[in-house]
Amino acid sequence: MGKEKNYILFLKQFGRSDNIKEIKTEELKNISGGFSTWMALGIAATVIFISGVINGIVHPNSCS
């Protein structure tokens, strides 16, 4: 309980205690959004592609 009290006092000090709401377990299960697996794969693929393009510009190989 001590940590919760300190957290509440911290929030009150910065004026954000109005936004505190207790969320029940059922409501937590219904929360969606955030960072998905597909987003992570898309970012990774983009980084790999761009690094390949830069590598091709910096180290060009001639056709044999």
Describe this structure in words.
The chain is mainly alpha-helical. The chain is 61% helix and 0% strand. The chain contains three helices and no strands. The longest helix has 22 residues, at 37-58.
Fold blueprint:
Blueprint: H1 2-13, H2 25-29, H3 37-58
Low-confidence regions: none
In total, the number of strands is: 0
Mean pLDDT score, rounded? 78
Shape estimate: elongated
Question: Taking Cα atoms only, what radius of gyration do you get, to the nearest Å?
Answer: 24 Å
Counting helices, strands and paired strands, the structural category is mainly alpha
Number of helices: 3
Succession of helices and strands: HHH
State the end-to-end distance.
72 Å
Q: In percent terms, what proportion of residues is strand?
A: under 5%
What fraction, in percent, of the residue positions are helical? 55-70%
Main beta sheet, described?
none
Which terms would index this structure?
mainly alpha, 64 residues, 61% helix, 3 helices
Can you summarize this structure?
Helices cover 61% and strands 0% of the residues. With 64 residues, the protein is mainly α.
